[in-house]
Amino acid sequence: MSPSETLHWMEHYHCPPYITLAHVFHAPQGWNVENRILNQYALQYCIDGAAEYPVEDQHYLTQKGDLLFHRPGEVHSIHTVEGEPYVCASIVFHFGAEPFPFDSVFQNRHLLGRFEGHKLERMLNELIHYHRQPGLSAQLKCQGLLLQVLGESADPQRQSDHKERTNLAKMVLVKNHLIHHYPEDITHEDLEKISGLTRNYIILQFKQAFGMSPFQFLTWVRLQKAKELALMTSLSVGEIARQVGYSDVHTFGRMFKKKMGVSLTEYCSSLTTHYLNTKPRLSPEPEGSAASKEYEA
Fold first, then answer.
1. Cβ distance 29 to 80 under 8 Å?
2. Percent of the chain with pLDDT over 90
3. Could you give phi then psi for residue 112, rounded to 5 degrees?
4. pLDDT of 174-190, one tens digit each?
5. What domain range is 115 assigned to?
6. Residue 291 within a domain
7. Are 259 and 212 in contact (CB under 8 A)?
8. What pTM did the predictor assign?
């Protein structure tokens, strides 16, 4: 049989690929790319540091070990993170006129997983090394390595779930520390020790998990506690301020009014007035009754 007669048997075999770029890039501080469109496929492997990587309408934060993929025609940007390096391996390639079923391999995924310490990391290093070498032998090795990389990253649950669970667990630790230590003078260094992550990465991950930065959440916790103390105790504004972590009552007062639109005194007064105007007139419950016990509890 001629080769052309065997092609319909080999629907899962695809060639070439053609690799047009394979290099390591050290981004300078403040480096960014906005709304770039490539005409080829691209793999971006984060060797060190972190970068925000929006692709189309999806936003990704890539950290050391993350492999990201985007297709021809997809609008993407790269934003370095302040205080973080960004070193990445970039592989740009295409399949010429030959179709390749990327949609069935990767579905709609861009972030393919975390491969720090995985053999895929070694494959990428070898691919970049051979891409610099002349000759057919080096070219064939590059093609073989790229296909192995694509095969290794085809599992949609590949280590990305583990990373997400690990990061979420660390953010829960940070959140619990803020809740339990809100009266204290908490610093970014405290949160770094708890999570083992850098300041900027904590901020990005916490926002992603809870919709606000750690210190915005701390302010919210203090605000809720201040309202509770004002309604349930006879403490003065200054005493409440100290109990929720503010040594200066004026700073506390400005924070409360900025967040609530009224001062703490005005807030309590409005609630007390509303309660008195809406409180139902009930006869006292007999001492020892179920309702009396429930109220006392």
1. yes
2. 48
3. -90, -10
4. 999 999 999 999 999 99
5. 7-155
6. no
7. no
8. 0.55
